[in-house]
């Protein structure tokens, strides 16, 4: 029996980067978390401890900060493409790179040029993979919390001796959306595409009369693909943030879907992908990313 080294990569995870652009007294904040991963001819460091082909993770970290100084960060997809192409192009043993970027939102305080308040936990994301001369971009959003107070039902499911959940034709539907979409190329107006895709998903969530969170998930992915030919595939992970009506009968009160207990766990987790039947091959786009 032989023992061999399998697929491997290494990098610097979760580099926190904040940039301030100053246009006179008016400042603009960009707040990013950047993770770098490199792969290639790296067997020696694993098998013998020879680090001659290992670009130190500290160097990767420094590169992130230097690139942020040398040119404006711009769209996170472009920043990740620049970093990934730099690592692959400047280090002969390195044949592939994966750059992950989360952007954390800040809003300007009304009436102030250089004071900000942090927005929700929602994050714009991108994952750029470089393999030789090829590049794949998967962008998305995470922690996008949405809720609608009606327009959702859940019934018709199997019943067995362990079933206690009551059917309903009117419930709160709430979830925290993680969505990732795979682009067909890299010649895209990233900011415009992101804003429009986010808007399409929110409108579909709000407008679609839901018989299940699964139905809503598919409708959101389908709407994105119908509106955006530059997208080949959408993957969504949507936990069901349950809101249970509180039994107020012990107090002589009726609860007409007005008072709820918001449970944080356990929760139903609905995940799925929606893609074009003629979508180009995903290549390395999803490698090292969660399935959804």
From TrEMBL:
<feature type="binding site">
    <location>
        <position position="214"/>
    </location>
    <ligand>
        <name>urate</name>
    </ligand>
</feature>
<feature type="active site" description="Charge relay system">
    <location>
        <position position="12"/>
    </location>
</feature>
<feature type="binding site">
    <location>
        <position position="57"/>
    </location>
    <ligand>
        <name>urate</name>
    </ligand>
</feature>
<feature type="binding site">
    <location>
        <position position="154"/>
    </location>
    <ligand>
        <name>5-hydroxyisourate</name>
    </ligand>
</feature>
<feature type="active site" description="Charge relay system">
    <location>
        <position position="57"/>
    </location>
</feature>
<feature type="binding site">
    <location>
        <position position="171"/>
    </location>
    <ligand>
        <name>urate</name>
    </ligand>
</feature>
<comment type="similarity">
    <text>Belongs to the uricase family.</text>
</comment>
<feature type="binding site">
    <location>
        <position position="171"/>
    </location>
    <ligand>
        <name>5-hydroxyisourate</name>
    </ligand>
</feature>
<comment type="pathway">
    <text>Purine metabolism; urate degradation; (S)-allantoin from urate: step 1/3.</text>
</comment>
<feature type="binding site">
    <location>
        <position position="154"/>
    </location>
    <ligand>
        <name>urate</name>
    </ligand>
</feature>
<feature type="binding site">
    <location>
        <position position="57"/>
    </location>
    <ligand>
        <name>5-hydroxyisourate</name>
    </ligand>
</feature>
<feature type="active site" description="Charge relay system">
    <location>
        <position position="242"/>
    </location>
</feature>
<dbReference type="GO" id="GO:0004846">
    <property type="term" value="F:urate oxidase activity"/>
</dbReference>
<feature type="binding site">
    <location>
        <position position="58"/>
    </location>
    <ligand>
        <name>urate</name>
    </ligand>
</feature>
<dbReference type="GO" id="GO:0019628">
    <property type="term" value="P:urate catabolic process"/>
</dbReference>
<feature type="binding site">
    <location>
        <position position="240"/>
    </location>
    <ligand>
        <name>urate</name>
    </ligand>
</feature>
<comment type="function">
    <text>Catalyzes the oxidation of uric acid to 5-hydroxyisourate, which is further processed to form (S)-allantoin.</text>
</comment>
<keyword id="KW-0560">Oxidoreductase</keyword>
<dbReference type="Pfam" id="PF01014">
    <property type="entry name" value="Uricase"/>
</dbReference>
<keyword id="KW-0659">Purine metabolism</keyword>
<feature type="binding site">
    <location>
        <position position="240"/>
    </location>
    <ligand>
        <name>O2</name>
    </ligand>
</feature>
<dbReference type="InterPro" id="IPR002042">
    <property type="entry name" value="Uricase"/>
</dbReference>
<feature type="binding site">
    <location>
        <position position="57"/>
    </location>
    <ligand>
        <name>O2</name>
    </ligand>
</feature>
<protein>
    <recommendedName>
        <fullName>Uricase</fullName>
        <ecNumber>1.7.3.3</ecNumber>
    </recommendedName>
</protein>
<feature type="binding site">
    <location>
        <position position="214"/>
    </location>
    <ligand>
        <name>5-hydroxyisourate</name>
    </ligand>
</feature>
<dbReference type="GO" id="GO:0006144">
    <property type="term" value="P:purine nucleobase metabolic process"/>
</dbReference>
<feature type="binding site">
    <location>
        <position position="240"/>
    </location>
    <ligand>
        <name>5-hydroxyisourate</name>
    </ligand>
</feature>
<dbReference type="InterPro" id="IPR019842">
    <property type="entry name" value="Uricase_CS"/>
</dbReference>
């Amino acid at each position: 029996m032989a023992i061999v080294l399998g697929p491997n990569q290494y990098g610097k995870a979760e580099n926190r980067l904040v940039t301030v652009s100053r246009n006179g007294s008016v400042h603009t904040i960009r707040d990013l978390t950047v993770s770098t991963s490199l792969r290639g001819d790296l067997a020696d460091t694993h098998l013998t401890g020879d680090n001659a082909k290992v670009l130190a993770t500290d160097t990767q970290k420094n590169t992130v900060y230097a690139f942020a100084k040398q040119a404006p960060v711009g769209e996170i997809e472009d920043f990740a493409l620049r970093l990934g192409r730099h690592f692959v192009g400047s280090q002969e043993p390195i044949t592939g790179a994966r750059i992950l970027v989360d952007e954390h939102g800040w809003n300007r305080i009304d009436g102030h040029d250089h004071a900000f308040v942090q927005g929700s936990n929602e994050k714009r994301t991108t994952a750029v993979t470089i393999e030789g001369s090829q590049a794949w971009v998967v962008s998305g959003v995470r922690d996008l919390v949405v809720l609608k107070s009606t327009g959702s039902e859940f019934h018709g499911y199997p019943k067995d001796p362990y079933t206690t959940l009551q059917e309903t034709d009117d419930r709160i539907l709430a979830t925290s959306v993680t969505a990732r979409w795979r682009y067909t190329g890299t010649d895209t107006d990233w900011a415009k595409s992101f804003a429009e895709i986010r808007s399409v998903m929110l409108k579909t969530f709000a407008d679609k009369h839901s018989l299940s969170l699964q139905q809503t998930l598919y409708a959101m992915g389908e709407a994105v693909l119908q509106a955006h030919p530059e997208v080949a595939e959408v993957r969504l992970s949507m936990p069901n943030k349950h809101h249970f009506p509180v039994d107020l009968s012990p107090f002589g009160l009726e609860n007409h879907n007005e008072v709820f207990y918001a449970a944080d766990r356990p929760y139903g987790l609905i995940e799925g992908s929606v893609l074009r039947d003629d979508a180009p091959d995903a290549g390395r786009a999803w490698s090292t990313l969660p399935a959804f």
